[in-house]
Amino acid sequence: MIPYAFTRRETGWSLERARALLGEMRGRRSCRAFSPEPVPRELIELAVEIAHTAPSGANRKPWRFVAIDDPAIKREIRLAAEAEERENYERRFPGEWTEALEPLGTGPEKPFLEIAPWLVVMLRVDVEVVAGRTRKNYYPMESFGIMSGFFLMACHQLGLATLTHTPSPMNFLRGICRRPANEKPTLLIPVGYPAADCVVPDIPKKPLYEALQWNRP
Ligand code: IYR
Q: How many helices (H) and strands (E) does the chain have?
């Protein structure tokens, strides 16, 4: 054990930072129309490194990242994702789901998978072989969720737009990325700048009082 190098802040400082951060995070939107403008690799590496600082069950960090800017791989991913999504929208989705998606304007075409300069594939690792022994990771779902939240927030803070995309099923990504069978493709996150004419749905956000309870009613 070592001492925790924690910086204690004044409450005024914290409040100011919290309000500024809330303002910035309120401005984050899922982006479905990207500009092809390149993003330096170092920026992606830093965002991934920030995500990788996330806490995880027993510090196992049950995730892998594959960062892709190779146009040939992006094209392969787009074609495979669109094939799955076409099945979803035309056959697999129940009516209720397509209704819920209607106001978001989503559909089976995913041009952003080729246009965004980077695709970051995140894979969840529930079980892995370490030093010849198979071991189970702890709380992989929770850990993965925390990690991906760190990533989305980091990207927004760095001035990058993202989309949490989950083509379903997304096992095709394992083959395309040449990852082993114990790694489960879980999120496919395009990262870049919004296209100049990017629009987002004008939808209300659930008010905080519907989500937050203080103590007991
Ligand atoms: N994965 C599908 C459907 C979809 C699901 C949710 I939840 C969204 O917020 C948006 C879309 C698709 O990407 O089209």
A: 8, 6
